[in-house]
Structure formats: C-alpha cells, structure tokens
Amino acid sequence: MSAIAPTVRSTSPRAAVLRAEARLFRREPGTLFWILGFPPLLLVILGSIPSFRKADAGLGGLRIIDLYVPILVLVALIVTGLQTMPPIITGYRERGILRRMSATPVKPSALLTAQMGLNGSAAIVSALVCLAFGRIAFDVQLPKQAAGYALALLLAAAAAFALGALVSALAPTAKIATAIGSAVFFPSMFCAGVWLPVQSMPHVLRQIVELTPFGAAARALGQAAAGDWPSWSHLGVLAAWAVLLSAAAAKWFRWE
Hints:
Pfam families: ABC2_membrane (PF01061). The chain is mainly α.
C-alpha cells in the first residue's frame, strides 16, 4: 500500500489503488492458481474419467462432463468470494490500512472496488477458460442461451462477492476470515454440485439445494447451457441472496 501515496499526486486515487492492488494480485501465484488454474485442472481430471464422457439416458442424453462445466465455472467464484477476498480486506483493516486511507484522498471504498474488480475479472477469465477447455478437449457444447448464461453468471458473481463481503464484515482478523471462509467453502462447493451434480441429487435434497445461491446458480447455468432460458425462480433466488447478503455486509462492515 505504500506504493499508492506517490502515485496519487499524478493520477486519480481510484486508478492508483487499482494499479497498486493489481501489482499485489499478480504477485500471489497461489491465489492465481486457485482462481485460474484449479477449475480447468479439475475439469481435465474429471473429463479423463471414461464414464463421464458417455451419454446418460437418465440425464436426458447428456454426459456427466457436460454437467460439470457450469459447476466448475462456479468454483472460481466460490474461491474468490470466500477464500481470496475476505482475508485481504480483513488484513487491511487489522493492520490499520483502511483507517489511514480514510484520512487521504484515497478512500477505503476505492480499495474494496479494486479488490472486487480484480477478483471478479479473474473469475470471469477462469469461466471462459473452462468453457474453452470443455469445448476443445471434451466436445462440450458452448452455452446455447448465451444471454441467459451471462445473466446467471453475473447474478452468481454478485451473490458470491456479497457473501465474501459479509465474511469480511463479520471477521475481525484475517485468520478468522480464513476460518469462516473455509467453513462456508465446502458447503458452497457441495451446493454447486462439485461432488454430485444438482440434477442428480434426490428430489428433496435438490429442492433444498436450489434455495441456496450456488445451487440456484448451478441450475440456472445448466439450463442456459442446454439452450433454455434460466428459470426465473433460480434467477430470483440468486438476486434475493445478492441483495440480502449485500445489505447485511453494508450494515455490519467496519473500516476499523
């Protein structure tokens, strides 16, 4: 953060923060791997299982690998929302960086905007890589309802980052933020269908999972990938979670 101060004099505060945070973001190879590398790698591993590449009549003629591409698109959002962003923001608060920034032309909100923009961009790139890998390596069709897919992806990103903002608001330290994020991470992965696609879950369990943000997102992305407009109920669940989580984060968030 010390690199921000001299830059602010010659350019806008928000641009200075964005450049500084982008440099720090690029210096974290572990973070970049989990956002950009892990979902495509998991896709390659799953696609290498022969039974996952065979059409299943119970899935409407789809293959299991066809179902996993939208799921792995969500994995990057879950990682960024719960594992990457909260420890950074709480770490800045814990070290007093947000408090010191509030007395300069660089407002703390600029840092939050930069963090969400950088992590969001990385997650979108990861989604595009998964779609490209699926198409090239395993002949997975690109989303047939592109507009519906994009809408569902944007709502899923809003819900994921709102959840991350809430974790950042509730956690007083970076270690606690990591602990809370990890506790929510695995249930979120389950609801997204990483261990069992939502479509393949028992009926009652599927109905419950579809009320969660990532369960609804998995279903909406899957529907759009198949060529249907995502169900308004799934989109509504995503929008409701995004609004509720954002409101809760705004209420409890503290700069210091």
